[in-house]
TrEMBL record:
<dbReference type="GO" id="GO:0008270">
    <property type="term" value="F:zinc ion binding"/>
</dbReference>
<feature type="compositionally biased region" description="Polar residues">
    <location>
        <begin position="20"/>
        <end position="30"/>
    </location>
</feature>
<dbReference type="InterPro" id="IPR002328">
    <property type="entry name" value="ADH_Zn_CS"/>
</dbReference>
<dbReference type="InterPro" id="IPR013154">
    <property type="entry name" value="ADH-like_N"/>
</dbReference>
<keyword id="KW-0560">Oxidoreductase</keyword>
<protein>
    <recommendedName>
        <fullName>Alcohol dehydrogenase-like N-terminal domain-containing protein</fullName>
    </recommendedName>
</protein>
<dbReference type="InterPro" id="IPR036291">
    <property type="entry name" value="NAD(P)-bd_dom_sf"/>
</dbReference>
<dbReference type="Pfam" id="PF08240">
    <property type="entry name" value="ADH_N"/>
</dbReference>
<keyword id="KW-0862">Zinc</keyword>
<feature type="region of interest" description="Disordered">
    <location>
        <begin position="17"/>
        <end position="36"/>
    </location>
</feature>
<dbReference type="InterPro" id="IPR011032">
    <property type="entry name" value="GroES-like_sf"/>
</dbReference>
<keyword id="KW-0479">Metal-binding</keyword>
<feature type="domain" description="Alcohol dehydrogenase-like N-terminal">
    <location>
        <begin position="66"/>
        <end position="196"/>
    </location>
</feature>
<dbReference type="GO" id="GO:0016491">
    <property type="term" value="F:oxidoreductase activity"/>
</dbReference>
Length: 446
């Protein structure tokens, strides 16, 4: 309800006018301005309403602006963030919006002012759309670009805005995503990174989001040598944040979750410790358990890689349902009370708006440094992360449990949501994909 009200308000108020690229181009079928004149059609995954996504057929997008690149998608995936769209917790989605913010592919067409890319080149896109020239872009803080999203609701709610993002609602500019056979990439020279021959799509794809996000969570929250790090949420972001914490010198990492993902962690990262919060004894809490595990004091650094929509208790569940808050404070409070005095806490899981019962007292009295990590600035890190893949320091395909087909992606969304079939990170192939690399799981059809 709130999501649709925000969308209506946006229509009435209008945009801020600061964007230098077209806004609300979430489906090439919505406007002749956006559809390729060849009449070629493509398959894509679209949001059709709360808890409903569908495979659709729509026109291939065209070069609308001179700096556009049209990418033929050879690999894409589903992110924990897509669940916030599916559930309608991220506001301002419109029926028919094409989703997906992590994709790689081959350059299909370039606009007249594109200098870095030619047809046929392999590339990966960043989840955010940046102009490359504004105050934030100059510092590679690409997720906060000032020129690609002029949504007024986001500005009013947050006192500032993020960059535009692929497949992430009109709240972030309204751009069609990469869970499709083609995607239009504005400012292609800026938002695409060439993929070298020795990096397969199954590894390079994750430079779009997961790798930069988890790396940023770790360095931005300030993990240092010999730190003990606690991570809430054992999904792909949490797992990579754990790996990156160790790479940055952490001496122990403890992950907190409540399902089979913890078994996945135990099997794949034997040196990482876990807490299953659903199996805690009477009178025990995550905070008391962490204190007991870490010198009766608690971790030095805590990182939230879950999300504000996942209430643990009835109180927040109802408050959220009744619109009294948009996000639960339970996870953040747990981080604050668990972390040692003067330690730091970072929030990378998505939070949408306002929360009740925030433990500001513990934060203030004990000197906890609470850091909003922000949408991660991918451009700041993706070149060095690519090098780490090439040097085999990291193996992103370790996260991938399934290879699926774009044709089945609507069904995959629901499996992913339920964490069914041991599904974690998927590699989505399209009709343009290269033969599967050695690291790929076999194709599963749904
Ligand atoms: N800041 C960014 O730039 C950025 C980028 C990508 C993803 N994200 C966000 O990061 C979060 C994690 O992404 P993901 O792809 O790993 O998601 P995911 O949904 O696969 O994993 C989230 C995990 O959190 C666990 N969880 C839920 N409630 C919990 C609780 N109370 N305590 C501990 N764990 C709990 C879930 O069981 C799940 O395993 C999502 O919110 C996603 O939107 C942020
Ligand atoms: Zn994501
Ligand atoms: Zn910019």
């Amino acid at each position: 309800m709130m999501s649709q009200a925000a969308l209506q308000a946006e229509k009435v108020i209008g945009h801020g006018g600061e964007a230098t690229t077209a806004q609300n181009v979430t489906n090439p079928g919505n406007s002749a301005e956006y559809a390729d004149p060849s009449g070629e059609k493509m398959k894509a995954l679209a949001w059709m309403g709360k808890n409903k996504v569908e495979m659709i057929e729509c026109p291939k997008p065209k070069v609308m602006e001179p700096r556009d690149v049209i990418v033929k998608v050879t690999g894409s995936t589903v992110c924990g963030s897509d669940l916030h769209l599916l559930h309608g917790t991220v506001v301002e989605l419109q029926k028919g919006d094409i989703l997906g913010h992590e994709f790689c592919g081959v350059v299909d067409e370039v606009g007249s002012e594109v200098t870095k890319f030619k047809k046929g080149q392999r590339v990966v896109a960043s989840f955010q759309i940046a102009c490359g020239e504004c105050f934030y872009c100059k510092q590679k803080l690409s997720s906060q670009c000032e020129k690609t999203n002029d949504n007024t609701i986001e500005n009013a709610m947050y006192g500032g805005r993020t960059a535009g993002m692929f497949g992430y609602s009109h709240f972030t500019g309204g751009f069609a995503g990469g869970q499709a056979e083609y995607t239009r990439v504005p400012y292609g020279d800026v938002n695409l990174l060439p993929l070298p021959d020795d990096v397969a799509d199954e590894e390079g794809l994750f430079l779009s989001d997961v790798l930069a996000t988890s790396w940023h969570a770790v360095v931005d929250t300030g993990v240092k040598k010999d730190d003990v790090v606690a991570i809430w949420g054992a999904g792909p972001i949490g797992q990579m944040a754990a790996e990156f914490s160790l790479l940055n010198g952490a001496k122990r990492v403890i992950m907190i979750d409540s399902n089979w993902r913890l078994d996945f962690v135990k099997k794949n990262y034997p040196n990482i410790e876990t807490i299953d919060f659903s199996a805690l004894g009477k009178g025990e809490s995550v905070t008391s358990k962490l204190r007991e595990m870490v010198d009766n004091r608690g971790p030095d650094v805590s990182i939230e890689c879950a999300a504000g929509e996942y209430a643990k208790g009835w109180a927040h569940y109802f408050e959220m349902m009744l619109g009294l808050e948009t996000d639960t404070s339970e996870l953040v409070n747990e981080m604050i009370t668990s972390t040692r005095n003067f330690g730091s806490c970072g929030i990378t899981g998505v939070y949408v708006g306002f929360t009740n019962h925030f433990n500001i007292g513990s934060l203030m009295e004990r000197g906890i440094r609470l850091i909003g990590n922000g949408q991660a600035p991918v451009h700041k890190y993706w070149e060095s992360l690519l090098k780490m893949i090439q040097e085999k320091q990291i193996h992103p395909s370790k996260m991938v449990t399934h290879r699926v087909s774009l044709d089945d992606l609507d069904k995959v969304y629901y499996k992913f949501e339920e964490k069914a079939d041991g599904m974690q990170k998927v590699f989505v192939e399209t009709k343009w994909s290269f033969p599967a690399s050695e690291s790929s799981p076999p194709l599963t059809r749904y």
